[in-house]
Design goal:
With 333 residues, the protein is α/β, with parallel strands linked by helices. The protein is built from twelve helices and 15 strands.
Length: 333
């Protein structure tokens, strides 16, 4: 049975960043990290908000927004486990737990590391992560996928895709907004049968890149259920019951990237909540873009979890014009 490690997110910047003595570089750093870090004049450093909070309050425990179990990693790990691969999920890695992550991956000894780019915003951020993974695991194939990969490669021709992959140092990427089918085909075919994996861009050797045939996926969202066995008791976890959004707001590209709205069968969504409750999950964050649309489906969902007494606190995005007083009462209940 092939062993596969799934990395949900990697924060490449250290928790504490020393400010350069060069005033030009110092100004650039302050402008870039002004909203995500705190400047500490005593140490002339920029400190991650969570780290700063812990330092000021003498908190020793790990405390980070990234400790929420992310939908992307859970979906990928669950998908592979259902298809009979041995999977270990690493929800998030940063400077505070990198050493432990490296140790655990080496003990697990996977053939492939899957890396989600849901929260990757720049090429430099992606390249830093790949550099970190290849430095510590030079003999393990690193395969990345997600929205960042698709938006980076979608308009590039084959030659530019080859160049991009070599520049980042990644072993391979899935160039599709979904990618579950390609991921499965890749893991089944690795290492000897990769040429027919759709939407795959991969390195055949250190300087030879192959761009496979591209064909947009349309996977059944009911085949992407989350297995909450990956989530420890009392943790907060994401889950989704829909893909894309029924609205097409001018400021948002997500519907055009993700394709038509795809709704999970409500019974499947409820079954995941039952599983979450059974496993002692503390609370759920629904990753759906517009959780209460269609409105009728949302109300049936509320009625069902009330009737079954699935009393898990939950959070979601929603469209305010599709709720009323009675719906809000049900949401609270």
């Amino acid at each position: 049975m092939k062993k596969i490690a799934v990395l949900g997110h990697h924060i490449s910047s250290p928790e504490i960043m020393n400010i350069s003595k060069n005033p030009v570089y110092a100004k650039q750093a302050l402008q870039l990290y002004n909203y995500t870090r705190v400047y500490d004049d005593k140490t002339n450093s920029l400190i991650d908000h969570d780290k700063y909070f812990k330092m000021k309050n003498n908190i020793k425990d790990r405390f980070s927004v990234w400790d929420l179990y992310l939908a992307s990693g859970l979906i990928l790990a669950s998908h592979l486990k259902r298809n009979n691969f041995e999977v270990q999920l690493f929800n998030t890695v940063d400077s505070s737990n990198e050493t432990d992550f490296i140790k655990k991956v080496n003990i697990f000894s996977p053939e492939i590391i899957i890396f989600s780019t849901t929260f990757i915003l720049t090429k430099n951020q992606f390249t830093d992560t790949i550099r970190f993974l290849k430095k510590n695991f030079p003999d393990i194939f690193v395969l990345a996928g997600g929205q960042f990969i698709f938006t980076s490669l979608d308009k590039k021709d084959d030659r530019d895709q080859e160049k991009w992959l070599l520049e980042t140092g990644c072993d391979g990427v899935v160039n599709d907004t979904q990618g579950e089918a390609a991921l499965l085909d890749f893991c089944k075919g690795y290492p000897n049968d990769l040429k027919n994996v759709l939407n795959l861009v991969w390195k055949k050797s250190s300087n030879k890149v192959i761009v496979n045939v591209k064909r947009r996926e349309n996977n059944d969202i009911n085949s992407t259920l989350i297995d909450f066995d990956f989530v420890p008791k009392n943790a907060t976890a994401h889950m989704r019951t829909a893909r894309s959004c029924s609205f097409k707001c001018s400021f948002c590209t997500y519907p055009s990237v993700a394709g038509p709205l795809s709704l999970m069968e409500l019974e499947e969504a409820i079954s995941m909540l039952r599983h979450a409750k059974k496993n002692g999950i503390k609370q759920i964050i629904f990753a759906d873009d517009t959780f209460n649309v269609p409105a009728e489906r949302f109300e049936v969902f509320l009625d069902t979890i009330i009737a079954e007494e699935i009393n898990i606190p939950w959070y979601s995005f929603l469209r305010c014009q599709y709720i009323n007083k009675e719906i809000v009462k049900k949401m609270k209940k």
